[in-house]
Amino acid sequence: MTTQAQSTTERAGADAPLLEVRDLTVEFQGEDGPVPAVRGVSYALTPGEVLGIVGESGSGKSVSSLAVMGLLPATARVTGSVRLRGRDLLGLSDRELARIRGRKIAMIFQDPLSALTPVYSIGDQIAETVMIHQGASKADAFTRAVELLDAVGIPNAAQRAKAYPHEFSGGMRQRVMIAMSIANDPDVLIADEPTTALDVTIQAQVLELLDTAREITNAATIMITHDLGVVAGIADRILVMYAGKAVESGRVEPVYADPRMPYTIGLLGSVPRLDRPGQPLTPIEGSPPNVARLPKGCPFVARCPVRISLCETVEPDLEPTAGGGRWAACHRSEEIELGRIHGAPVFPLPEIATLREELPREQRTAVLQVDNLAKRYAITKGAVLRRKIGTITAVDGISFDIREGEALGLVGESGCGKTTTIMQILELTPPEQGSVVVLGQDVGSLNSQQRKQLRRDVQVVFQDPMASLDPRLPVGDLIDEPLRSFGVPADKRRARVRELLSLVGLSPEHANRYPADFSGGQRQRIGIARALALEPKLLVLDEPVSALDVSIQAGVLNLLEDLKVRLGLSYLFVAHDLSVVRHIADRVAVMYLGRLVEVGAAGHVFERPTHPYTQALLSAVPIPDPVAERQRTRILVHGDLPSPANLPSGCRFRSRCPLFAELPSDQQQLCIDVDPQLESRGGDLASACHWARERQVLPGA
Amino acid sequence: MSLPADPLLIADDVSMSDLPGEVPEGPDVVVRGRRQLVLRRLRRNRAAMAALVVLLLLFVSAFLGPTVYKAITGWDYEGQDFTSFLSPPSATHWFGTTQIGGDVFAQTMRGLQKSLLIGLLVALISTGLAAVVGSVAGYFGGWVDRALMWIVDLLLVIPSFLIIAIMMRNVKDAGWIVLVLLIALFGWMITARIIRGMTLSLREREFVLAARYSGVSSAGIIFRHLIPNMSSLLIIDATIAVATAIIAESGLSYFGFGVKPPDVSLGTLIADGTQSAFTFPWLFMFSGGLLVLTTLAVSVFGDGLRDALDPSSKRAGGGR
Questions:
Q1: Going by C-beta distance under 8 Å and a sequence separation of 6 or more, which residues neighbour residue A204?
Q2: What domains are defined for chain B?
Q3: Which of B14, B17, B31 lies nearest to residue A60, judging by beta carbons?
Q4: Exposed, middle or buried, B145 (CB in 10 Å: 0-12/13-18/19+)?
Q5: Would you call A40 exposed, middle or buried from its count of C-beta atoms within 10 A (0-12, 13-18, 19+)?
Q6: CB–CB of A522 and B310 under 8 A?
């Protein structure tokens, strides 16, 4: 690694930018004329600098970087200039570009599984780039590949180099991608949503690694993401894109502290924050414009709460603002200060029903009681004579309850058994172990008629609004489906559909359209309306906002919060995003490998977590505040989730536990021998750790 | 976003937004169900409506034509005009006559009656059977799946021609309805297998789960969710089945198992007329033309129905 690092550290003059992109535009041929995907983006990067490009899906952030790489299809028309050390890349032939790609500019894609070739071992794949660009011999290249894998923290690198991509976990594959991208010591690294598909703990590992990679190569890094927290932690400068254009740019700290473009203000205001639980979210109404049919003036005008008549006719250019060093594309950027315009907030606070008078928790009735629930799957082998060769323990004896009007957040990494738990609850069938009691009725004692009646009280909202709505049914039919199956007469159903649509903030005429006509946020509202049709007592929300863009996510979260208070609903809210859970949940249950490791009131769990896993999870969530984010010390969890077929003895978390590593060996023995049970840690909080101790991991909590 | 190879994919990503701010029409909007919406979309499709009119005209002429024709010219499909053999179309014999003086128009209309009924019924029954069996097998899985697929495989290996031939010998009257059932019975298996495969992937989709958790019965899921989502394939299959059934019937009739003389069908007429297609074109042309017209009309109507059922279809146009 180090031998080559020197070559790039030589600077081509202190001021001369390494990569300079000017007026980059990209047009695709659409059915009705050209579709401008990128409409003039300019930035410059010096070695070692990190630029965060932020925007919602469809804002052109990925397309602009693909254009820099020259990876767009021939049908795309790219204009402007992309200069790498003064050499324009746009006019180059594909053959010439191929020599630069991978060597000077390397890219890390979001989905490492599709970016790696499944039929070659990863060692060979990394060696290939070394051979092509450095002309190394096969053996040398392979040795180098092993070195690189070792550098990115793949254990047993020499052995693992011979493994194939499918044998790696998502986080490991992303490490491999990073190893491949730094193999030729590039000048520029482009990371396109590198951590979006990963769990927070793995995201923290990968971000740390990216930082290391940047230090090793001193490459300028472009970090494309929709996560403002990630940018706050890693980037030096930020570029906010909207409808194919940069609308605000500058150094990270001032932009976060004092955004000047209403879109940036809206974005920052719509992200739920771990460190500010009570803060209401300000959603940006509407959805981004269709770039094929852009309005005449500012593209943000339809969603902007402080628009003036000038905005509708003249599109603002990206101009210096806020005393220099910063740029914003807004006619009123100088009037806006600290998210306020003439003293009033740019985005007015939404109206959300506030808490009603409530009995203390103990006196409220339990809507859902889960006791010692377990679900195991047998692993079988053989086609004719099936024999059991092991068991996968998806859920292993968990107990919790949800009281009336309460939201329980169930959090954990993917593969921890969250989904299995809620599916078991939703099935309303007797579990193989333990009991599920819904509104006082044990599901084990139900016949099929009673089970159907009980379905009225337990409804579900799924993660992906695209998949959970039948594309062939109009919205009206979708929403009234539960009513239909309970034999509600047609005229009542129609009236209810209208009522439900307005309840979730859609208009009744939407009932005659198909799901494909709606944007993601609206579709999720349809899903919520449908779940509410039967007036349930308990709503199971399975990652309801994780498929949505932040600005839209805020609207859905506010709606959920509002409905909970107005209709007195109880929520079982499953999410991997702790900020979202922090925002909406009253109580939190943290799940790890089929067990609950910490349960308690949200404030307690988030502010004074006692289990090392909760602490690590919380510390891994990036906070969209560059100052606070950079002062935090991460508690890193090692490695990946162990296979549920082969659990560690004693405490399940010990193989990854940061606390376990610090313990003296006599104390470690307890973790190895004895499986800890949930024990009360004072008040409502209970955690399953032998050495539980409070630790504050969030700033200012 | 991973590396997009398809420019359309990128364009999709770029122009993902939709719904320009519309003004709600007010509180008295009628909530229409799927049936009404599909019918409205179908009615808006001119080609499909024209095809429907053509089909109706074919039915009317096939069933009323012979009576009217007999009243005007005095000929029916069994009669023979010993004064004109193989005469070209004229005022007395609109479509000409055959070698033995049979009236081609009367025969063609009589044949059309049979063939329309056979074609449409076979298509309806075989595609319907395929849809139900395939989706039931796929949705329930387990022993239901195994039993149904065993029947499918059995029917696939049985020589259908022989069975039909034997069965047709034993039924004397009302033979055509048995024929319809037999042709349908041996024509659905491959489609059913395809439908089963599609169901296997569809039933994993979340909307099926969502429907189940809101209390919808298995039958409700199969008929409201699964089958409509496979309608494109089913409609194409039914369209093709119309033509194949008409041809299959003629094949059977040729060997004397289907429609028996003196009764005729489009298939038998075509089979008879093919040899003299160039020398005496009227023997072949009219029956052949009507077969083409029938299948064309069915296929255009099927296309329209498919577009009306498919909300993503631009042609049916939600009027946007």
A1: A619, A620, A634, A636, A637
A2: 108-309 (1.10.3720.10)
A3: B14
A4: middle
A5: middle
A6: no
Q: How far is B35 from chain A (nearest CA, A)?
A: 10
Q: How many CB pairs lie under 8 A apart between chains A and B?
A: 193
Structure tokens at B195: 């439908």
Tokens of residue B207, six digits: 């909307």
**Which of the residues in chain A have pLDDT under 70?**
1-16, 339, 342-343, 355-358, 383-384, 700-701
Nearest to A290 among B13, B18, B231 (CB): B18
| CA A350 from centroid of its chain's CA atoms | 24
SS3 A109: coil
Tell me the C-alpha distance between A223 and A272, whole Å.
21
CA distance A291 to A32: 12
Peptide bond into B262 cis (omega under 30): yes
Q: State how far the alpha carbon of A180 is from the alpha carbons of A121, A145, A499, A588, A624, in Å.
A: 13, 8, 55, 39, 29
How far is it, in rounded angstroms, from Cα A497 to Cα A532? 10
Please list the pLDDT of chain B residue by residue as tens digits (320 residues): 333 333 333 333 333 333 333 333 444 567 777 888 888 888 888 888 999 999 999 888 888 888 887 777 777 777 777 777 777 777 777 777 777 777 878 888 888 888 888 888 999 999 999 999 999 999 998 899 999 999 999 998 888 778 877 777 776 665 678 888 888 888 889 999 999 999 999 888 889 988 888 888 889 899 989 998 998 889 888 888 887 888 787 777 767 777 777 778 777 787 777 777 777 777 778 888 888 888 888 889 988 888 888 877 655 444 43
- Asked if ipTM goes beyond 0.95, one says no
CATH architecture of A2-235: 3-Layer(aba) Sandwich (3.40)
**Helices and strands, number each (H, E), in chain B:** 14, 0
**Residue B164 structure tokens:** 């039909």
DSSP string, B273-307: HGGGTTTSTHHHHHHHHHHHHHHHHHHHHHHHHHH
Helical ranges in A218-329 per DSSP H: 228-234, 252-257, 262-270, 309-313
The per-residue b/e assignment along A613-626, b for 16 or more CB within 10 angstroms, e otherwise, is bbbbbbbbbbbbbb
Tell me the one-letter amino acid at A102. G
Contact between A42 and A213 under an 8 Å Cβ cutoff? The reply is no
DSSP characters over B133-155: HHHHHHHH-HHHHHHHHHHHHHH
- Closest to A543 (Cα-Cα) out of A573, A585, A522, A571: A573
Q: For chain A, how many residues are written?
A: 701
Residue in this structure with the two tokens 């209390």, named with its chain if needed: B215
A533 at the B interface (CB within 8 A)?
yes
Letter for the amino acid at A376? R
Domain A363-597 indexed as CATH 2.160.10.10: no
- Cα separation values, A99 from A70, A105, A106, A145, A523, Å: 12, 10, 11, 19, 45
| Closest chain B residue to the Cα of A112, Cα to Cα | B2
Indicate if A363-597 has the same CATH topology as A2-235: yes
- The answer to whether the Cβ–Cβ distance between B214 and A509 falls below 8 Å is no
Per-domain boundaries in chain A: 2-235, 242-345, 363-597, 598-701
CB A211 within 8 A of CB A153: no
Burial class from Cβ neighbours inside 10 Å (0-12, 13-18, 19+) for residue B258 reads buried
Inspect the interface and report whether the beta carbons of A485 and B24 lie closer than 8 Å: no
Per residue, what are the HEC states of A336-396? EECCEECCEECCCCCCCCCCCCCCCHHHCCEEEEEEEEEEEEEEEECCCCCEEEEEEEEEE
